[in-house]
Amino acid sequence: MRKYVVDTDLYVDFIRTGARGEALRNLYTYETPGIFFSSVVIEELLAGALSEIARRRIEELFRPFERVGRILTPSRGVWKETGDLLAWVRNCHPSLRSKIPRLTNDALIAFSARSQGAAVCTSNRADFELIARWHPVDLLVVQ
Questions:
Q1: How many domains does the chain fold into?
Q2: pLDDT one-digit tens code per residue, 119-138
Q3: d(CA 96, CA 63)
Q4: The domain spanning residue 15 has which CATH number?
Q5: Which of 5, 16, 105, 137 is surrounded by the fewest CB atoms within 10 Å?
Q6: 48-95, pLDDT tens digit by residue?
Q7: In what order do the strands lie in the sheet with 3-6?
Q8: Cα–Cα distance between 5 and 40 in angstroms, integer?
Q9: Which domain holds residue 100?
């Protein structure tokens, strides 16, 4: 069974506009036992929840994963690897330094997923491919 971690961008697009709904439905329909929810994604979604209703809806997304023990949380090693990646970006790609704040959470998601043998489902091809240049990660890019 293949494992997946869904990136925040897919949930946000779906919540805001319904975009990427078919891709999420297909993933949830055919791959449910292999889907993990990242604690980093939980943080990002809750940070954007500006009302109690929005917060409850987001909690409805991740609570089932909590119940079955499929919340993926970055380990110390993942945090270290993320720091190494960010230093590499600063040193080797100075023109990309402004991306570092966004790359932090993406790297935590990518390296946590990789530690579990999971692919990251995302529409954020550019940032995740940059991360994969540092250390390979399995990506499922959704258009």
A1: 1
A2: 999 999 999 999 999 999 99
A3: 36
A4: 3.40.50.1010
A5: 16
A6: 999 999 899 999 999 999 999 999 999 999 999 999 999 999 999 999
A7: 71-72, 35-38, 3-6, 118-122, 139-141
A8: 11
A9: 3-141
